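Hi C.,

You asked whether I'd gotten around to modeling the 308-residue construct. I have! Everything is below, sequence then structure, no commentary in between.
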Amino acid sequence: MANGNRSNSSSNSLREFSDDFRIGTATFTIVLILATVFGNGLVVVAFSRFARIRTVTNYFVVSLACSDLCVALFSIPVWVAYLLTGPVWVFGADLSRVWTMVDILIGTASIMNLMAISFDRVLSIMTTMRYSVIMTPRRAIFIICCVWIYSSCMATASFFLFAKRIFNLVATIMCFCVPLLVIITAYSIILKVALYHVKQIHATTPAQYPRSHCNFLRELKAAKTLGVVVGAFVVCWLPFVVINIIYSLCEQQHCLLVNPQVILVTKWMHYGNSMINPIIYTAMNNDFRKAFKTLIFASDATLEDEIP
């Protein structure tokens, strides 16, 4: 999201990366790329093959998986190529600017997809009986298009404002801080509504549950899964965002005091987030878990197998 190449200036203070570092980086990267492509590829394939997976909420999940696939196929390979040849950037200024632009596009798309998911979950919790009428697949696709258009605009702006330090700060605020505030607000609303419904449910017997309670419990389960996805995103991205804010506000000579190894770790953390989401789906979402087992082991589908 924010300018990943800001870290290069600190890394350049190192004369060279050690051979052990290069070997460890290459090995870790191969595992990370393969796991990210495999896991997020399963999400996309499961969505396309199984009718039960094709809920409106999972439209946003697939959009998130696509952004994670882009991380594995473009962002990480360029980053590891730098680590293997660095700490001096040897690939030219043009590739640096393009890589940074795509990095911002992908990172912005990830958090904007999470913001769209949080909005979708609030809507489903607060309008349980009317949710399917309000949030249709067509409207979900429209929202996803808006997410990627916004992300593309931010990425394009970064290409032309590459050297402006203030843009890095503005991009961090617009692409991380504001969406994160919206997400936290959304899940606070979900928690408040959940507590109210739990009290209502405890006051009735199972035979007395209204249909709205049953629908609410189903929607709440989906919200829990996506809440964990959001939590993992924040943990993985926040250190990197803090580093970018430091670079945006401090003088260059003071920024050099930031440990280059810390910067590298924060970069790997936010790239590693792209691998985590499918693991969360497998652990917490029964439909995705069954679909993944079916796809991996080619077993008889427990979900309706419907190939469009």
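If it helps when you're writing up: Residues 1-13 have pLDDT under 50 and may be disordered.

Thanks,
B.
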